[in-house]
Amino acid sequence: MLSARCKMTTFQKKLWAGLVVMALLSPLGILLPSYFDAEDAWGEWSGEKLNEMLGYIPAGFEEFADIWKAPIPDYNLAGEGASLWIQAGSYIFSGALGILLAFCFVYALARIIRRNESEFSAEKE
Please, are residues 52 and 58 in contact by the beta-carbon 8 Å criterion? Predict the structure, then answer.
């Protein structure tokens, strides 16, 4: 019974394979800039960096910068002094965790919708 419920379509298998590949490629965001002496990733600037680049900090950025604190800052579990390979492992873990959380959210939402649809169908009859 369990195997019948867990059969995946070809599309679902490709989707999961793509998500795994993306999680494994996620460390490129830290590996490539370090090898090419590049700066921060586009759009991941701090207030200080924005001030340096623009000459000011946008008002909205200043106002809302402290509202959200990332659960895993910089996707790094080992801290600032960690080796590049430890940071890469942390990136992969963060990517896998994000995929898992997104899957759980979508799965729970789908179950709620399915339950509501079945209740609606039962009321209609």
Answer: no
